[in-house]
Amino acid sequence: MENISIPSSTKLPLLQASRTAANVIRSGEIPTLINSLKSSMVADTLP
After folding, report:
1. How far is CA 12 from each of CA 20, 27, 30, 47, rounded to the nearest angstrom?
2. Superkingdom of this entry's organism (predicted)?
3. What's the predicted TM-score (pTM) here?
C-alpha cells in the first residue's frame, strides 16, 4: 500500500471519525450518526 502523506491536522479528526463511524455501525445507531453529521455540517456552514 502506498504511503499517502496526510497532514496530521487532518489525520487525527479522520481517525476519530472513522472510529466513531465503526462504533456506530456496530451498535446499529445509523440515524444517530446521520443526525450528528447533519448538525456538524450545519455548524460548519454557520459563520
Report:
1. 12, 23, 22, 24
2. Eukaryota
3. 0.36
